[in-house]
Amino acid sequence: MPNNTLVILPSLGANLSPSGSILLTEKFVSGVRMTVDHWDGPVEVLIQKDNANHSGNLDDVWVKLEDLPFRVTVADFHSPEAKSVIARAAVVQGGADHNLNHMPGWCSELGAHYVMVSEYTLRTRWQIIDAERLNPLVTWRRKVWAWRQERANQTAVKAAAAVQCNGTPTFDAYRPLNERAMLYFDSRVTADMLPAEPRLAVREVLWSSAKPMRLAFSGRLNRMKGVDHLPLVAQALRDRGVPFTMDIYGDGPLVAELQKTITRLGLQDTVRLGGVLDFASELMPTVRDAVDLFVCCHRQGDPSCTYLETLACGVPIVGYGNEAFEGLMRRCPAGESVPMNDWSSMAAVIEKLALDPRRFAEMARIGLAFAREHTFEHEFKRRIEHMAQLLASD
């Protein structure tokens, strides 16, 4: 009987409780569950231990190991126990993580196909480091480390049996290095979440002080996501006389700073912090039914699932022109990009759009159509088929 075992190596760590529960993210668990449903063979997860009680994501969840439909091994990626897991695999899926630099070699030695998953380019990693506002020497050291890791990533890409690129930046960078590179767009949107048509598709009247344009952002509230620029965008819109409200959903280290800035700028009546909303039951319906435009000040080019999830609500996006957003807009012009860190230009674009509801309708239709072609189910099926083709070539 052929060996069809798939082993997944997530970059996130896992905390184990004495009662036998494991801390993972809901997005990861749902993704592996779906992989189990589509993969023709056993699915296992090999994950490293992490004693933290929070992963830094907004969807952490404790689950019992016995309730999972896949086997989980918690071990250091360099350990003999990890190597024994790889030895029983036909296909191994891992990310661009320094702890996995050796994995293509192990897989080649043990007869497994290694599939590398990537999403951050060196440029994006450097932008993330810059956003942290660290000591210049620390910043320089981290950038040198990231540069060296990128060289290791490129070596791994060349050695891998296939590469799956989340978003356009790494796909454009790695496609010349591996003939089995594929592009996909990650999101949590399932087909049943999509509206039949965008709410904005029937809008023809202008926004007014009585019915202001409803702006929103959702995600981690940190500098990497550029949330400290949102009040500045709001201030510039107020100065331009644009009728609007802005809701900011999520949690993170900048909550207190955001609230202070909102108060200092006198924006309490128009800018509100809405906390964390459950993705499926609260956030998606809110964006779909009560948001006109998504404002995204991401300072770096991570291929955030926020982009696809917003388009799936039939809501256009105005965002900083990082490499991920601009790459998406080239394929799906369902928004407008502005120069990085230029909140004044963002306010000017929003003012222009506020006077053009027909443009909103056009972007909303384009975005929803694109999201319909890249649902959670659709993208996972493509990724599974991409890996299964490796077994067919044996």
Please provide a written account of the structure.
This protein has 394 residues and is of the alpha/beta class. It has two domains: 6-185 and 376-392, Rossmann fold (3-Layer(aba) Sandwich); 191-373, Glycogen Phosphorylase B (Rossmann fold), CATH 3.40.50.2000. The chain is built from 14 helices and 16 strands. Helix 1 crosses helix 14 (376-392) and helix 7 (230-240) crosses helix 12.
Strand content: 15-25%
Name the average pLDDT: 92
Ends distance: 14 Å
CATH class of the largest domain: Alpha Beta
Question: Radius of gyration, Cα only, in angstroms?
Answer: 22 Å
Number of alpha- plus pi-helical segments? 14
* Number of distinct beta strands: 16
At CATH level 3, the topology of the largest domain is Rossmann fold
The global form is globular
Provide the spatial order of strands within the biggest beta sheet.
6-4-1-7-8-9-10
Oligomer: single chain
Number of domains: 2
Q: What characterizes the major β-sheet?
A: 7 strands, parallel
Taking pLDDT < 50 over at least 5 consecutive residues as the criterion, the unreliable ranges are none
